[in-house]
Design brief:
Length: 285
């Protein structure tokens, strides 16, 4: 009998973390430098996990400075010896996309996300298809839609990525909010007001600022260009079909490190989107 898959085998080990007391600027610098959307927060005197801070938390409280006032306290967490089934169920039941992982001594040893679990789903070689897991009520965009309008659609639908259709109504691209923000350039003084002057230790680039660009958009410091999204989108994206197996979809997402894939019919017409959070439902049964 195969061993029950454990969190420790799939988690990201030695995760980046922050300490409290601490400041918002420290979190923003990590979001700029790393492709992270959430950071565990520890108490400085004993390294105990006390919270987690996400990019959304920073965006939602742009004028709050103390990490303790921005972070989610008492975050949902799991243990390194927990099964993937338990971790997946915790994520789905609590609508969270990452779990801090603790060892038997309550020390932070990792973080696990739905994307981390896809390797196991891929290995299961399940016959179930994405049709039973995908999101059907999705909003596609047209290739000539201006980027500023596309971003408004994303804001309204709470979607981080949307499929783009060509004039034949077939999928020709996919675009994320980060793709749009990456095209924006802002004054260095605006950045320094949030992050402080750039030092030799700051290896971030203008492109990497897209991790926090939404903050500048929300507080009115930048304007989104009206460039047609076909000039920004990822063209000819990886897709799966309605009858693609869950395991094959997981394999495609895992290899490409994609959080989502457009789902099409045999003629390339959009039928929905499937997200990593959708696929981990097979583990939570």
């Amino acid at each position: 009998m195969a061993a029950t898959p454990k969190v420790r085998d799939y988690m990201t080990k030695d995760p980046v973390f922050l300490y409290v007391p601490g400041h918002r600027r420290e979190a923003m610098k990590i979001f700029v430098k790393e492709t992270l959307s959430g950071i565990p927060v520890l108490r400085e005197d004993d390294d105990k996990l006390v919270g987690i801070i996400t990019r959304k938390d920073v965006f939602d409280k742009p004028h709050e400075d103390q990490l303790a006032m921005i972070m989610h306290k008492d975050p949902v967490l799991c243990r390194e010896d927990d099964s993937l089934h338990k971790a997946a169920k915790l994520m789905l039941d609590n609508s969270v996309h990452r779990l801090p992982v603790l060892d038997a001594d309550d020390k932070l040893v990792g973080v696990i996300s739905p994307l981390d679990m896809l390797a196991h789903i891929a290995d299961l070689e399940l016959n179930e298809t994405v049709e039973g897991y995908m999101q059907k009520a999705v909003v596609p965009l047209h290739r000539l839609m201006p980027a500023n309008v596309a971003l408004e659609v994303m804001e309204i639908t709470h979607a981080k990525a949307l499929a783009v259709l060509d004039d034949a109504a077939t999928v020709s691209g996919i675009i994320t909010d980060r793709d749009i923000y990456a095209r924006v350039r802002i004054d260095q003084k605006v950045v320094e007001s949030e992050l402080g002057p750039k030092t030799e230790d700051d290896n971030w680039s203008w492109e990497s600022l897209r991790n926090i660009m939404k903050l500048y958009y929300d507080i009115g410091k930048i304007q989104i260009p009206r460039t047609p999204i076909e000039k920004i989108m990822v063209k000819d994206p990886k897709t799966v079909q309605v009858k693609t197996s869950v395991s094959r979809a997981a394999r495609v997402m895992n290899r490409g490190r994609f959080n989502q894939l457009p789902v099409t019919d045999v003629n390339g017409h959009l039928k929905g989107m499937v997200y990593d959070m959708d696929l981990i439902k097979v583990l939570a049964k």
